């Protein structure tokens, strides 16, 4: 697999994973966005305005959980680089463990149909998910900065539209076309993941998180345990 093919696999796979996990969390956990901090702020405001506070604690706690995931990924990256590399593999493995925790807690919590059912296990599932997606966002910036973002699609859509307009008006060059492709693959993956996740959750419950766990396992298997980089 050459570098371009590898980038496409990573972009599509991680984009699909982010859309899938965010949608499943929203459907299963009272409107929680595990990967979308801005969305949770909006929902908190809406809940406060409606005086319906049944799920506000989870959304408030999701923010520090997301930050924890980002910080943990950063510290793990620094430690891995000092030992000679393999940072991406270890960071993806950490995300896998956190998502597995989300799946296990969600399965133990049982069916969640009312806001008042946000018990400790449901809260734990949401916080594991938010921490995992914090790590996911950090990985995108730390180890995969050559790819378009895989968890936040607003920037990708904006850039894709700008570049497409330039190509259509004859002002786009090879760099513009390459950037279109780079933004398009994660966007398609995210859209597919978001579309599939809700149906998967209705059919399988939290066991549907096995899908992103398999994706992460494949991406982990693609990465060497260590690189030839020297310690810093």
Give your account of this protein's structure.
The structure is a single chain. With 232 residues, the protein is mostly helical. Helix content is 75%, strand content 0%. The chain is built from 8 helices and no strands. Helix 1 (3-28) runs antiparallel to helix 8. The chain is globular, with a radius of gyration of 18 Å.
Salient structural properties:
232 residues; disordered C terminus; mainly alpha
Strand tally is 0
Compute the number of helices.
8
Quote the distance from N terminus to C terminus.
29 Å
Mean pLDDT: 86
H/E order of the elements?
Answer: HHHHHHHH
Radius of gyration of CA atoms, rounded to a whole number: 18 Å
Beta-strand percentage?
Answer: under 5%
> What portion of residues is helical?
over 70%
Which class of secondary structure composition applies to the elements?
mainly alpha
- Poorly predicted tracts of residues: 228-232
- Form type: globular
Q: Quick one: biggest sheet?
A: none
List the helices and strands and how they pair.
Blueprint: H1 3-28, H2 37-50, H3 56-82, H4 87-109, H5 120-142, H6 153-168, H7 174-204, H8 210-222
Summarize the structure.
By secondary structure, the chain is mostly helical.
């Amino acid at each position: 697999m050459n570098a371009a093919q590898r980038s496409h696999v990573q972009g599509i796979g991680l984009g699909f994973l982010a859309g899938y996990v965010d949608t499943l969390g929203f459907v299963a956990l009272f409107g929680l966005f595990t990967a979308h901090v801005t969305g949770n702020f909006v929902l908190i405001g809406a809940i406060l305005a409606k005086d319906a506070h049944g799920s506000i604690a989870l959304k408030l706690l999701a923010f520090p959980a997301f930050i924890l995931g980002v910080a943990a990924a950063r510290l793990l990256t620094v430690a891995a680089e000092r030992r000679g590399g393999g940072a991406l593999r270890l960071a993806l493995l950490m995300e896998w463990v956190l998502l597995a925790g989300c799946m296990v807690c969600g399965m133990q919590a049982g069916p969640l149909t009312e806001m008042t059912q946000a018990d400790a296990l449901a809260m734990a599932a949401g916080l594991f998910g938010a921490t995992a997606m914090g790590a996911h966002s950090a990985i995108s910036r730390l180890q995969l900065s050559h790819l378009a973002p895989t968890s936040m699609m607003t920037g990708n859509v904006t850039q894709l539209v700008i570049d497409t307009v330039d190509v259509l008006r004859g002002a786009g060059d090879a760099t513009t076309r390459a950037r279109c492709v780079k933004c398009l693959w994660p966007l398609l993956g995210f859209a597919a993941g978001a579309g599939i996740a809700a149906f998967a959750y209705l059919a399988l419950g939290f066991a549907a998180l096995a899908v992103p766990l398999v994706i992460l396992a494949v991406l982990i298997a693609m990465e060497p345990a260590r690189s030839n980089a020297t310690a810093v």
